[in-house]
Amino acid sequence: MKILVATEKPFAKAAVDGIREIIEGAGYELALLEKYADKADLLAAVKDADGLIIRSDKVTAEVVAAAEKLKIVVRAGAGYDNVDLAACTAKGIVVMNTPGQNSNAVAELVVGMMVFMARNQFTPGTGSEISGKRLGIQAYGNVGRIVARYGKALGMKVCAFDPFVPADVFKADGVEVADSVEKLYASSDFLSLHIPATDQTRKSIGYKLLTSMPKGATLVNTARKEVIDEAGLMQALEERPDLKYITDIAADAQPQLAEKFGKRVFATAKKMGAETAEANVNAGLAAANQVVDFLKNGNRRFQVNK
Ligand code: 3PG
């Protein structure tokens, strides 16, 4: 059987070596498609693959249709909004993610981003400290939970909102809970987003929430650009010269945002939340193990299209 690793943004070498060891150790063939620029390359490579390991690579209905033997897709990472689940399900293809495996890397980036914005993007001038400030966490999953821990360690007052998480989880972590998303925004000097991009969350963060934030507040987005209502963000930044926005996933309107708001906004050049050797190894090896365990033993733990 052939397992294709298709990564437009490649894994670190140590991760690829580890994936190879697992796949070949199981008696399968490993095919590598890295840094591909053209969708046609993925369509050709997936044709005879039995298993597929990806990162943010788009597995569209077209890719699924081209895959004649595909049985499993594992997204090495958390968010699987890049996979057409309906197309996979219709063809009986199992889709999984690797929850938690790259969370620490993203959480560390959140800390770095808060400090970076509080210190004028590391340019001269008087900045501020994040210790003592209120940190709001929207969605308390694997990443949000680590961000809460790091925020507390830095002396921040941490509060979270997540209607899907039971109260005892917050209690165990010593984290305050906001009754509503509105209350969370209204009381956060820094707001870190950890919601996935779904039909419910797309464009859900906009003018109203942003303008309710306290003076000098910063929105930190290491989640997805799709959850932001960009027109609302633009208007909020225009009306509130104290607000700041930093993101790991450039907005479609990032050039206009940068031109209009200068140092109050920042976007990384390419999504780098999970770009650590450790996260690549954790997520890549987990993905390879999940592929093997599914093909050999039928283990469907972590399946997201049940
Ligand atoms: C994730 O959903 O796991 C992160 O956004 C990381 O995505 P990446 O593999 O494209 O870096």
UniProtKB/TrEMBL annotation:
Pfam families according to UniProt: 2-Hacid_dh (PF00389), 2-Hacid_dh_C (PF02826)
Alphabetized UniProt keyword annotations: Oxidoreductase
Record keyword Calcium present: no
UniProt cross-references to InterPro entries, sorted A to Z: D-isomer_2_OHA_DH_cat_dom, D-isomer_DH_NAD-bd, NAD(P)-bd_dom_sf
Superkingdom of the source species: Bacteria
Domain D-isomer specific 2-hydroxyacid dehydrogenase catalytic, residue spans: 22-305
Domain D-isomer specific 2-hydroxyacid dehydrogenase NAD-binding intervals: 125-255
Gene3D superfamilies hit by this protein: NAD(P)-binding Rossmann-like Domain (3.40.50.720)
Family: Belongs to the D-isomer specific 2-hydroxyacid dehydrogenase family.
The protein's name in its UniProt record: 3-phosphoglycerate dehydrogenase
UniProt organism field: Alistipes hominis
